Amino acid sequence: MLIDIQDPLRNFILNGCFYAIILLTLISLVPWKSLGAEHVSRMLSWLAFPVLGLAILYESVMPSRFDIRIDLILLLPAYALVVATSIVRWRTRRRPT
User: Which end of the chain is more exposed for a tag (fewer CB within 10 A), N or C?
Assistant: First the structure.
């Protein structure tokens, strides 16, 4: 376990959210359109919303007693990457004429 706060349910939620955010970030970085998966690329343009939901859940379960949070070194760039790739996908998406 990456995060251990001595509560099994909170540990499960925190670690699950953390790993899901990192996994979704890595998935968002794959150039699906160039691999021929146009449909997947269109679906991933909305990936920022599930990541935002996971981030809210993660931060709400995190105890307030943690002053120094090393996990934010990975999470903040992950949030920025997902939002940036979603914006790029929204802008490059072909619109029907």
Answer: C
